[in-house]
Amino acid sequence: MAGRFSDNTIRVNLCLASIVFVGLALVVIATKSRATGQDVAAEKQAEVQQQLPPDPDKDREASLAWGIELYGHYCTPCHGIRGDGNGFNAHKLIVKPANHTDAKFMSERNDQKLFDTINLGGVEVAKSTLMPPWGAALNNDNKIKSLILKLRDLCKCKATKNW
Amino acid sequence: MALMSLSTKYVKLLVGFAVILLVMTGVLFLVEGELSRPWKKIQRQFNKTDKKLTLEEVKQVQQLPDGEEKNKKLAMLDKRLDGIKSRGTGIKQLWLTDFDITDRCMNCHAGVEYPRFADVDQPLTTHPGKHIDPNRHGVEQYGCVICHAGQGVALDAHEAHGESHNWVEPFLPGTRAESSCVGCHPMTTAVAENTELTDASVFSKGRTLYLENNCLGCHLLQDNVRSESIGPILTKLATKTNSGWTRNWVKNPKEYLSQTVMPDFELPDDEIMAMTGYLFSLSKPESADAAARSKMEIADLAVLGTKKLDDLGCLGCHSVDGKDEGFGPDLSRAGEKMTPEWLYAWIKDPKKYWPETAMPNLRVPDEDAQLLTAYLASLAKEEASASKLDASAELIEKGLVLVRDKGCTGCHKIDEFALGYNAPAHDGIGVKRVDELVFAETDIPHRLSDWLTLKIKNPRAFNTKEMPTLMPKFGFNDEETEALLTFLLSIREFDIPRDYVKVLDDPSTPHVHGELIVEQNNCRGCHKIGDSGGTIGPDLGFEGERVNPEWLVDFLQNPDKIRPDGIEPTRMPTFGFDTAQAETLAAFFAEANKADYPHYLPEKKEIAEADTEEAWKFFWQTFSCQSCHAWNGEGGIIGPDQSDLGNRLRGEWVAKWLKNPQAFIPDIQMPNFELYPDEAEKLSNLLMGFADVSPGVWHQIKKRWEDEQLLKQAQQMGGN
Q: What is the DSSP string of B400-425?
């Protein structure tokens, strides 16, 4: 079996040459594929980042745009398109939804409190269970942070107390 | 005497010598001729190439690291080399007794089965695709002629490929062989237009084009039913449009709608004038209707109209950007064509004007219909041409004859003319004999495929005085022409033993029949179904496991809104499905999700009272479902009313949904409460109505919760 292919010196030389060649080719292919692999990963990451809001500390404007979009989608049915707590569903609720344009009311709540309310629901901050927890549905902290930006934009206020 | 005998002897010897020489030369010629037969040459070439390729493979295998795998491969290659050495040449033939076909193609096409011949030139190259996979149509079992036709017994390319005269079944090279698939895997119009026959993309494209362009309108084809919803009825044209627009339309349909299937009939102006005159003589324009025109002058018409088009879901089928790529016609120039009165009546009930139309009834309220009418009537690029129409009796008479004879009735119903077949039937066109074809002045080769190709591209190419051609110009490009040709070649009688017939897309199965209904009604214009579809309506990818089919059958026939206007302004239109169609669709969706169909609701389950009470607490206290969902008329109006849930949904699905709504609809406005499985189960049992609900218990719970809430609010008020 072995004799059939290996007794020829030219063939051995050819084999050696082709081993070197194939080896070189493999190195080239490996480096190339690694480079493309990285490119693909980076591209995917960029794509995902485009679908998710940025950190508001890094890009406030983009985050606010997200906040406006998310607020319109999830919050306005109860809190109203103007944020005054008069959404089309509000009159069906026994407790009136919060008025997000009320600067006094809103300035008494710091960002952490707002975050907790959105994330864990009204019941976690000793408020009504009618405000559900949105954390698991939104599944992204930057989305909640973008909503806080939108809330601060609505009330044109900052937190005055720190609790 | 002696001299004489000597010379006779000499002559005899000479003659003998000459005879031997002649015989030997003859034998030599024979031997040479035998050795140099084309198939022999090719087989020698095959053996040589195979040896070369195998040796290359050996080299590659030797690069591998030592091990059992390497030895195995080398042994295999070694064996193959031995085989090649002893292979030699010789005639092989397949006799397919079931088909009575003798097949000798592999004498030249020796490499078709071996992937290693992929880069080798014809005739030795590998067969592309997976068509001759041994598990499907192995060469040993099917040979070549069944799909590629031609003369299987011939050993010479020219004869085998049927290029010799009078061969009825022409050889089908390359993808044209896809036209033979339907012999065993038939497909009629009962299968949706866009269905792709497995691994026959060219044929499938041709079939789609054939049906899309309504070739069946004029050409009869057995076992196939033509669509009645392609061209609108022309009986009441005067109530719909003006004669100027109609004339321009017939002259050049693609100028107004770039993607219309209405072909160019290349009619002279005077004929168009006469035809328009006749069509407009069939009805009278309607007098101006105040209701239809009431919103013409309002401010912000464009803004409000655009929003209304969007809200009502019109854009699921129509475009307004002039691209005309939708299922229905583009509306960006609607005002040039249709009168406000007609538009208003059409929006209110399309099937009243044209019973066969695919457009559903959107149950548009009067107010919205008026707004839409005004907006659509305002969409015009050009002023409506107010050219006068000569309506003399003579012209109308001339128009009637033209409308009858020019082929309009292939697609349009016109008063006294029902749909008619205006062209030769297509049965058997795939094997039409060349002597039956008229080649007229053309200089193309006298072959069926060449004739059909030119006919598809330029239908009037074979026009003669004796036989004037009616067929209009469709403007197919090269690729479309080849696809249509492949489809036309498939229209022939196949003599296939019954055992070989295997229907791949069986119209009696829900997924095939349902797909036809989905396509005809353009459900994907609004809904995502399977891999594709719009986003105007809900994703129906899990409809089968979500809803109770009984409810779906009812809903499809009498659709009603499930969610209130605030959250979802679009309505599911009324398509006018009959019960059989609705049931097919319900089975179609159930099958897609492997859900049971028909579906039987379980009898009332045995559920502990404590569990029911806990579920009530979940509903009213812990998760406060009533903030969005109503129960018995109490609660929010964001989500669907829960009272009817047990009829609408399937219990298993409700539990799954409650656990993670975002898994089904990523941006659904339902919070994810991260329920434990047992919590979801208890709540789902309650919602589905499996548990007997004692009103006393839930009133108690509700009251307790409400008091708690009010107290909390009062405390906070006091605290502030």
A: HHHHHHTTGGGT--BTTB-----S--
